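Re: the 503-residue chain
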Amino acid sequence: MRSVKLYIVLGSILVLVALVVLLWWTPGTSHRQDSAQPLVLYCAAGVNPPVAEVAKEYQEQFGVTISVQYGGSGTLLSNLRVAQTGDLYLAADASYIQIARQQGLIAETIPLATQRPVIASAKGNPKEIQSPKDLLREDVRIALGNPDAASIGKQTEVAMSKAGLWENLKQAVQSRGVFKPTVNDVANDIKIGTVDAGVIWDSTARQYPELEIVAPLTEDSGFVAEITVAVLRSSRQPTEALRFARYLSARDKGLKAFERHQYTVVEGDLWAKEPQVLLFSGGVNRPAIEDTLKAFEQREGCKVTRVYNGCGILVAQMKAGERPDAYFACDVSFMRQVQDLFFDSVNVSETDILIAVPKGNPRGIASLQDLTKEGLKLGVANAEQSALGALTERMLESAGLLKAVMANVRSQTPTADMLVNQLRAGGLDAVIVYEANVSQVRDHLDIVRIDLPTAKAVQPYAVARGSTRKQLMRRLLDAITSAESQQKYKTAGFRWLYLTEKP
C-alpha cells in the first residue's frame, strides 16, 4: 500500500513538471529570444511599407517587438529631442541625421536606400505639368510637404530656393494648395483629387498606381536623399537595436523588402546575428585600438578577429590571397602596395620614428650619426617584414648613413615591440622604433628625437572592396575615430590626423 502511494506522489510530481514545461515551451520557437522591452523606432512615414514588413518578420523570427512611431522626419526629430527616449531613428533624408548627430542624439548610422524628389499628378497628367514652373500656374492646385515637419518639404524648399522659385511656390500653396505633415499625405491628396499635383519621393510615387511622375523636381543629378537608420544614444539596449538595424539594412533581409517596394537600395552587408570580420593591423596600432575593438565587439554583438603583425608580412599575406575585411596599416607606403584591394583609405594618426636608449643614455647617443659609433649594439625593424624597417632604411639612406649604421645592427625584428623588449633586457645599446612603441615604458627608457621630416609614419585605415561587411567595417572606423578613441591615441604616443583631414 505504501509503495502505491509513493507511485502516486511521484506521478503527480512528474505531471506537474510536464505542465510547467508546456507552459514555457512553444513548438517551433526554440530559436526565439524574447526581449523584455520592445525596441522603439521613430520612422519617417513615407518608409512605412518596407519597415512595417521587416519589423513583423524580425519579431516573428527573434521574438523582439518593434514598436514603430511614424511621422514626418522633422516632427519625429523634434519629438525624440524632447522625449530623450527610444532606440532607433529612421529619417527619409540624411540631413536630419546630421542635425541629430550635431545635437548629440544618435550614435551609429546605417544607410538603407536613396530617393529623389519628383512632381507627381494623377495618372494621365490631366493638367499637362512638365516642370516646376507649371506648379505656379493659376489653374494648378498643389500639395507640398511642410518644410518644418517632413523631409520632402525641406528638400523641396532647398531645391526650389536654388532655382529661385521657392517664394513664389510657397505663395501658390498658401493661395490654392496645402502644406502636409508627411509625404504620404501629399500622395493621398493627389490620389483622391484634392490637388492636381504635388512633390513627393520617386519611391513613394511608385507605390501608388493611381499616380504618375510627370517631372523631376530638379535636373541636378546629385540631388539625392539618403534614407538612414540611426541608433539613439538614449537606447537602453543598443546591442539589440544595432542587431535590428543590421537586419533592416542587410542585402539578403531587410533591403529585399525595400526593393519590393520600389526603393533604390544601397549595398548592404550580408545578415548574420553575430557577424565575424577579419582585421589586419600593423602592430604599432595595437595599444591605441585594442580597448576600442573590445568595446565595439560588445556593443555590436560581433567578433573582430585581429591579425597584428609587421606590415610587410601582412602585405605579403594579402598578395598571396588572404582577404581581410579591413586593413589598418602602420604607414601609407604599405597601404599603397595593396590599395587596389580596398576603397580609399583614411589617415587616422601619425607617430614619430625615434631612437630609444637605456635610462641615462650610457652611450651618449644624441643623433643618427652617433649610431655609427664603433662597438654599438643596435636593433632595427626588418625592412622586408615591417613598415618601420622599410621607413628606417629609407631614412638612413637619405641621410647617407645606411651602410655605416647597419654595420652596428645586431637585431632585426618584424615588430618594434620586440626591439623594445630586447633593449629593456640589456641586450642592445639603442633601437630605432616608433614613439608609440615606448609610450607605456617611458619611465624605463630615454628617447632621442630624429630631426628629419622622414622620421614619422602615418597610419591609414581602409575597408576591403570584397568584404561582405562593408557597413560594419565603416562603423568600426567611426569607433576608432571617436572622441573617446582619440584620447587613447594621444595617450599611446600618436598625433591625431582624422579630424583635421576629414572634410
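Residues 39-113+225-265 form a domain with the D-Maltodextrin-Binding Protein; domain 2 fold (CATH 3.40.190.10).
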